[in-house]
Amino acid sequence: MKNNDYVGAVRPYDLRRPSVKVGYTIMTILCIFAVLLAIMPVVWVILAGFKELKEFNRGVKAADNHYYLQFLPVSFSLDGYLETWNQMKYLRYYMNSFIVVVGSTICAVLFNGLLAYGLSHLKPRGWKVIYALIMGSLMIPATTSIVPLFINITKLGLSGSFVPLFLSAGASAFYVVMFKNFYDAMPKSLLEAAKLDGCGNMNMFFKIVLPLSMPINMVIVIYAVNAAWSDFLLPYLVLGGTKMETVMVRLFTYRTSNRVNNMDIIRAIVFSIIPPILLFIAFQRQITQNVVSSGIKG
C-alpha cells in the first residue's frame, strides 16, 4: 500500500472544491480557538507569577499617570518563584506526592487488572453478581463513603501513612470496567494455548495478559497519576498535620495562612500544576505509540 493511501476524511484533491475548502478553514479556526481557550488559563497563571503584587493588583503606570493592567509582566525574574518555593519547602511535599503517585499507579494497574482478569476470563461462580455490584457502585458518589472509609482507616491504625491512598486507587470500579472491556476483546485462543502449555492463572496474567495490555495500562496510568496528584480530601483527612502531606494538602494549608498574599498563592498553584501537565504530555505520547503499534499488529 502506498503512502498516499493513508488519508483522512479530507483528501488533498477535495480541497479544490470551494465548499470543502471553506469548511476545512472554519474547522481549523475553531480547533485553534479551542486550543487557545484551553491553554490560556494556564499561560495566564504562569505569567502572573512573574508579576509583583502592586503590578498584579493595579497594573503598570503609563505616561498619563494612569495604571493599566497588562497580560505580560514587566520583568521575567524568577526571584518571586524561588522565594515562594523556599517559603513553602515544596521539595518535601513533591517527594510525598511522588510516592503517592507511584504507589497509587501500581495498585491501580495491578489490583484492578487482577479483578478484571478474573471477571473476564476466569469467571468464578457468582462473577455476574460481583460485576453487577461494581457497575452499581459507579452510580454512588465517592464522597458519600468518605466518612465510613475514614473510620475504618482510623480503626486499622493506617492514619498518617500512604497505604490508604494506595489501596483506594487499587479499588476503583471505573478502572475495573475499563480493564474488563479490554480483556473481553483479547483473543481467547492465545490464553487457551498458554493453558495447554501448563501456564497458571497468575503467570498468565503477569507474562501474557499484562504485557499485551499496554494501551489500556497506559490509559489507567494517566488517570491514576492525575487522580493521585490532584486528590485532596482523603489525603487531607489521612495525612493532614503530618510531615507526609501532599502538594495539594500543603497548597490548602498555605492558602489559609495569614502570611501569604495573592502572588504567593498564584506561584504555589503554578508549582502544583506543572508536574501533572508534564506527566500527561509524556504519557500521551507513549499511549499514542502503543495504540498505533497494537493496531498494526492486529
Tell me what the structure shows.
The chain is an all-alpha fold and 298 residues long. The protein has two domains: 3-68; 89-297, MetI-like fold (Orthogonal Bundle), CATH 1.10.3720.10. It is 70% helix and 1% strand. The chain is built from 14 helices and two strands, in the order ααββαααααααααααα. A two-stranded antiparallel sheet has the order 1-2. A hairpin with a 5-residue loop joins β1 and β2 (67-68). α1 crosses α14 (262-297) and α4 (90-122) packs across α8 (173-184). The chain is flat and about 85 Å long. The two termini are 17 Å apart. Mean pLDDT is 83; it is low at 1-6 and 293-298.
Helix and strand layout, with pairings?
Blueprint: H1 18-48, H2 53-58, E1 60-61, E2 67-68, H3 79-88, H4 90-122, H5 127-137, H6 146-155, H7 163-169, H8 173-184, H9 188-196, H10 201-212, H11 214-230, H12 233-239, H13 247-255, H14 262-297
Antiparallel strand pairs: 1-2
Strand order of the largest sheet: 1-2
CATH homologous superfamily caption of the largest domain: MetI-like
- CATH first level of the largest domain: Mainly Alpha
The amount of helix comes to over 70%
- Strand-and-helix sequence, N→C? HHEEHHHHHHHHHHHH
Compute the number of structural domains: 2
Question: How would you sum up the global shape?
Answer: flat
The major beta sheet can be summarized as: 2 strands, antiparallel
Rg, rounded, reads 25 Å
**Low-confidence runs (pLDDT<50, min 5 residues)?**
1-6, 293-298
Number of strands: 2
